Inverse folding.
């Protein structure tokens, strides 16, 4: 998808990274609209939708979202536009076992790749927190991005211990997570580390079976 993006809009990823919506607003081929309510459409898990039936194709983004969530959502919807307007990408989608789920996951990964530095090699939860503060990406986007680069499990947990994102299905916590929630400070042990990010806990576990 990054290659298709670059073919159609050379150098676009670099311009999209700091301010995706500002950049997209200057593209005549696509319209971006902030809306009060989610109007349905592509059935995205993010609070936005893609409307290929409109001219030009339109990305609707929830106005109530934070600045970071808006940026992520706009790029996720741009991902749908690429998938639906590029034959090879479209074919790839329909080879997947569950095309809709595949599209959603790939659009999330695409948004994270645009927002976060491609060359970075995060290794720890501290690295993921640093990427968050250096970018316009949401915590979830940072975790998606990190999970593409870190072997093991990357998770986002709220202050009450609820798992909001985990790169491994069924992840529900670990002794490390419980220690971080108890102490309200960053912790690390042989299994990995956990670091706080604006009231949320980012967790990297290197040992897959530690939950
Ligand atoms: Zn979607």
């Amino acid at each position: 998808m990054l290659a298709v993006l670059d073919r159609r809009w050379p150098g676009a990823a670099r311009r999209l990274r700091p301010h995706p919506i500002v950049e997209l607003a200057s593209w005549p081929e696509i319209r971006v609209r902030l809306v009060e309510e989610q109007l349905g459409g592509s059935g995205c898990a993010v609070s936005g939708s893609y409307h290929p039936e409109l001219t030009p194709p339109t990305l609707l983004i929830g106005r109530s979202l934070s600045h970071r969530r808006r940026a992520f959502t706009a790029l996720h919807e741009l991902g749908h536009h690429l998938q639906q307007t590029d034959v090879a990408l479209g074919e790839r989608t329909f080879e997947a076992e569950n095309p809709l789920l595949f599209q959603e996951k790939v659009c999330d990964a695409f948004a994270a790749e645009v927002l976060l530095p491609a060359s970075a090699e995060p290794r720890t939860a501290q690295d993921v927190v640093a990427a968050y503060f250096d970018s316009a990406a949401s915590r979830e986007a940072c975790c998606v991005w990190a999970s593409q680069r870190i072997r093991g499990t990357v998770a986002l947990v709220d202050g009450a211990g609820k798992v909001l994102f985990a790169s491994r299905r069924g992840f529900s916590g670990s002794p490390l997570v419980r220690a971080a929630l108890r102490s309200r400070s960053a912790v690390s042990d042989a299994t990995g580390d956990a670091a706080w990010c604006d009231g949320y806990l980012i967790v990297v576990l290197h040992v897959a079976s530690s939950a």
